[in-house]
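USER:
Make up one protein:

ASSISTANT:
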Amino acid sequence: MKILLFTIAFSIMSFFAMAQDDTIKFTAPRQKNTLIEKGLKPNQNVQKPALNGQHILYNTNGQKTKDGFFKDNRFLDGKNYKYNENGKLTRIEIYKDGVYIGDAEIK
């Protein structure tokens, strides 16, 4: 009897709760980007996809580190950005066919 009364009371409360706020809220699904959220352990080897073609890489501070062409994860052509410990850009290295050829001007 108590279960029946509880079920009825819960149903009535749920109905009135839904009637008060009839707006529907949509949220974007949260992307899982940490190893633990993906069910992996921090020491577990994870095979990353090979970089092929034109890519721009960023460091954890959101600064560009490489901008150029990759083949099988090897940086072949483009710019390699170097920063000091304070995050200030100190050097831009230019690569051609995987070989360092000089520095670019920092603007």
Observations:
- The radius of gyration is 27 Å.
- Confidence is low (pLDDT under 50) at residues 15-38.
- The helical segments are 2-20.
